[in-house]
Specification:
The chain is an alpha/beta fold. Helices cover 37% and strands 14% of the residues. The chain contains 13 helices and 13 strands. Strands 3-4-6-9-10-11-12-13 form an eight-stranded parallel β-barrel, surrounded by seven helices. Strands 1-2 form a two-stranded antiparallel sheet.
């Protein structure tokens, strides 16, 4: 009988989790969520209140949103940056804040590839153009990719990367990993998902190169593996490195689950500690789109990679209740559970689930500035 056929044991969700020499206070992770609110890549007051609110909610690991390795690698003008040393001070403010609230900190390092030079989602989400220059002074820039294939109709065609430009971007990643280390993050994650540069190299839908960085799966994996190796080389030995992947491009097209298993096997050889299992990111015909996005729809990807590659995984995707999260852990489908939009709606989700399940231990997740008052209220009013 599987855990999904029995009552969920919420204790598993609040067990500490050790990876290398880092111990997380529980299995709940705040997923990296882009908010497009930086100024020239710099942390702003928005990020301080946003990350502080999420860290105060009781999760074990808190991701700062994807941060761009260079200006070309931004998605929008509002993307957080890690392309210059001056960005470190603001990021260090975030790691100190997260630590002060009892959580571990993580950062996702990324390059947008052919999805760069875009509007913020609430400004349309399409390619930047003359109207954006007129309205906000925000124009497009030249974008790059493994092959000169536009993301969608009407989008800018990227410049196919030369061997020289590939070497430059490897060094940009190296510098970004060093800055992330200097900012005090506990976990570093390489973003290889969602149609961005590293995913575009992995997928035959984005990579039609005929040199050493294309042709077959081994060639398409070469650059992402090189950069993962740089991350592991730069990152402290006692701290973990993650890689986020799109486990599949879609239904029966492009990068598939067996490719992700093979990639995870190679990442394990490099010393990567965990695979963050997402999916999608390419513009596909309707018949190739993923199945309906239901609760835990990506957990089968996480489960298979975990078992076949022998590498811990993080499950993410429409997980909304403590029971759903606990069952995924009990069933061996993931080692950590990441939530995104659910925590935007309710940043106190971890400590709410904890106090409802085990009141004595649940209060320990709550900052004393809140807990002292709320425990008194409960004692006096039973609320």
């Amino acid at each position: 009988m599987t855990a999904s056929e029995t009552t969920a044991d919420l204790d598993v969700l609040f067990e500490p989790y050790r990876i290398r020499e880092l111990t997380l206070r529980n299995r709940i992770v705040v997923s990296p969520m882009a908010t497009y609110s930086a100024e020239d890549g710099f942390v702003t007051d928005w990020h301080v209140q946003h990350i502080g609110k999420l860290a105060a909610g009781g999760a074990g690991l808190v991701f700062v949103e994807q941060s761009s390795v260079n200006t070309q690698g931004r998605i929008t003008h509002g993307c957080l940056g890690i392309w210059k040393d001056e960005h470190v001070a603001g990021l260090k403010r975030l790691t100190a804040l997260i630590a002060s609230l009892g959580a571990a900190s993580a950062i996702q390092i990324a390059h947008s590839g052919r999805k760069g030079a875009s509007q913020r989602p609430w400004e349309g989400g399409g390619p930047l153009g003359a109207a954006d220059v007129a309205a906000r002074g925000e124009g497009p820039w030249e974008i790059c990719a493994p092959s000169s294939i536009a993301f969608d109709t009407g989008c800018q065609s990227p410049t196919e990367m030369s061997l020289e430009s590939i070497e430059h971007v490897v060094e940009d990643y190296r510098a970004a990993f060093i800055r992330a280390r200097d900012a005090g993050f506990d976990v570093c994650e390489l973003h290889c998902a969602h149609g961005y540069l590293m995913h575009s190299f992995l997928s035959p839908l984005g990579n039609q190169r005929q040199d050493e960085y294309g042709v077959d799966r081994a060639g398409r994996m070469k650059l992402p593996l090189r950069i993962a190796a740089v991350m592991r080389e730069v990152w402290p030995d006692h701290l973990p490195c993650f890689v986020r992947i799109s486990s599949v491009d879609g239904m029966g097209v492009g990068w598939q689950l067996e490719d992700s298993v093979a990639y995870a096997v190679e990442l394990k050889k490099l010393g990567i500690d965990m695979i963050d299992c997402s999916s999608g990111g390419f513009k596909l015909p309707a018949e190739n789109n993923l199945v309906a996005r239901t609760t835990g729809f990506q957990l089968p990807f996480s489960e298979r990679i975990r078992h076949e590659a022998g590498l811990p995984t993080m499950g993410v995707g429409l997980i909304r209740t403590g029971e759903q999260a606990a069952i995924a852990l009990q069933d061996g489908r993931a080692d950590l559970i990441a939530l995104g939009r659910e925590l935007l709606w309710n940043p106190n989700w971890p400590m709410q689930i904890a106090t409802e399940h085990d009141e004595a231990n649940g209060w320990k997740l709550m900052p004393p500035q809140y807990g002292w008052w709320l425990r008194r209220r409960k004692a006096q009013q039973g609320k």
